[in-house]
């Protein structure tokens, strides 16, 4: 592991980027040098709340993806294994994104030789609908006038079309039921260290991106982009490294406090009683890659005589899988029509599994969880 500050050598990219445009310029390097077939990133559609995944093959189109989109938590692992498994791909990843990619690599659904992962430090994401309501209620601004947003120094900051900025403390927003998604509030993985590099503004100087280089591939990315004239770099000061570590520590402490508050408050049996077995949580899950041949589709799991159907077999099977697989992305919560906090239940069980085995999905460097490893642990 090593650290570097970087920024784009291209003025337009540096201006459009979140903190110096280093990430966009690294993607430009990979495309222009023919190292990858395409870049999977997010771009706004109708507005900043509507980020959509885009596969870019022309580096001139990259500038449209520059910046942060905290209202668009797309799980890229699922997209890569379904649509781009046979291509060389570079991809921007939040911590839950790279955790899903890592788990799909273990399941042989993604070839690690085919992907370059550029991690983005993450303080959390916000629901697009909630974001609009939140800005309308707590900011002196029209949600349609927002051109960018950022989570920094404990605040949710918006930039307006007239150049003005407004900020409200995340704590105050979340006290009133707004702010980050519930799964983001309890997430204790803030820096995507399983990615080749992890980038962000924590500890960075103005106009520079702070990059943690996590492996040999990451070092090659930085060296190649610098040698090709795409980025410039310099070493961060010791105080910058310490400042970044301090921010991470504070955010993890907040997450642990939220875990203590939410885990005891959820009763699995009460929540599952509302389940209608629609399978939406299974179908959206980035780790459930085998849904087309899922055992839960077999006739002996169907309960046609009960309305609503008994959820115990469905949720029991899923729980047995997710105890060592859940990356707490929260997508199951987003799609559940009965407002069941599915990810909270799965994450609670994942923490219990971690306490017993030491394994954390998408974080632990062991090739497989203890349940499947030849080095089994006696529980």
UniProtKB/TrEMBL annotation:
Protein name (Swiss-Prot/TrEMBL): formate dehydrogenase (coenzyme F420)
Enzyme class: oxidoreductase
Organism from which the protein derives: Methanobrevibacter millerae
Gene Ontology molecular-function annotations: formate dehydrogenase (coenzyme F420) activity; iron-sulfur cluster binding; metal ion binding; oxidoreductase activity, acting on CH or CH2 groups, with an iron-sulfur protein as acceptor
Cofactors demanded by this protein: FAD; Zn(2+)
Taxonomy, superkingdom: Archaea
Sequence similarity: Belongs to the FrhB family.
Keywords: Iron, Iron-sulfur, Metal-binding, Oxidoreductase, Zinc
PROSITE patterns: 4FE4S_FER_1, 4FE4S_FER_2
Domain 4Fe-4S ferredoxin-type residues, every copy: 265-286, 317-347
Gene3D superfamilies found in the cross-reference section: Alpha-helical ferredoxin
Record-listed E.C. numbers: 1.17.98.3
Catalytic activity: oxidized coenzyme F420-(gamma-L-Glu)(n) + formate + 2 H(+) = reduced coenzyme F420-(gamma-L-Glu)(n) + CO2
A Pfam family recorded for this sequence: Fer4_8
């Amino acid at each position: 592991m090593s650290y570097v500050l970087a920024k784009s050598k291209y003025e337009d990219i540096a201006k459009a980027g979140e903190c110096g445009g280093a990430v966009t310029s690294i993607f430009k390097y990979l495309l222009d040098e023919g190292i990858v077939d395409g870049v999977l990133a997010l771009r706004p559609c109708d507005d900043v709340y509507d980020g959509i995944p885009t596969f870019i093959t022309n580096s001139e189109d990259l500038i449209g993806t520059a910046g942060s989109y905290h209202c668009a938590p797309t799980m890229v692992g699922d997209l890569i294994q379904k649509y781009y498994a046979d291509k060389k791909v570079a991809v921007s990843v939040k911590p839950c994104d790279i955790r899903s990619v890592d788990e799909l690599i273990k399941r042989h659904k993604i070839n690690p030789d085919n992907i370059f992962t550029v991690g983005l430090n993450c303080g959390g994401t916000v629901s697009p609908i909630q974001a609009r309501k939140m800005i309308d209620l707590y900011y002196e601004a029209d949600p349609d006038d927002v051109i960018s947003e950022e989570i920094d120094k404990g605040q949710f900051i918006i930039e307006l079309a007239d150049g003005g900025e407004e900020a409200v403390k995340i704590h105050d927003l979340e006290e009133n039921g707004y702010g980050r998604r519930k799964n983001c509030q309890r997430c204790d993985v803030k820096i995507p260290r399983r990615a080749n590099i992890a980038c962000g503004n924590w500890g960075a100087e103005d106009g520079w991106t702070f990059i943690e280089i996590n492996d040999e591939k990451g070092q090659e990315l930085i060296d190649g982009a610098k040698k090709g004239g795409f980025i410039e770099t310099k070493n961060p000061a010791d105080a910058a490294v310490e400042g970044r570590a301090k921010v991470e520590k504070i955010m993890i402490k907040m997450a642990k406090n939220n875990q203590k508050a939410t885990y005891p408050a959820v009763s699995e049996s009460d929540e599952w009683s509302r389940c209608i077995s629609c399978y939406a949580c299974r179908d959206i899950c980035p780790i459930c890659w085998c849904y087309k041949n899922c055992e839960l589709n077999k006739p002996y799991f169907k309960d046609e005589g009960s309305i609503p159907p008994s959820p115990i077999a469905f949720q029991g099977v899923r729980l047995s899988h997710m105890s060592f697989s859940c990356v707490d992305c929260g997508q199951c919560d987003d799609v559940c029509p009965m407002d069941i906090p599915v990810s909270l239940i799965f994450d609670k069980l994942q923490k219990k599994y971690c306490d017993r085995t030491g394994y954390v999905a998408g974080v632990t460097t062991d090739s497989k969880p203890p349940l499947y490893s030849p080095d089994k642990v006696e529980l």
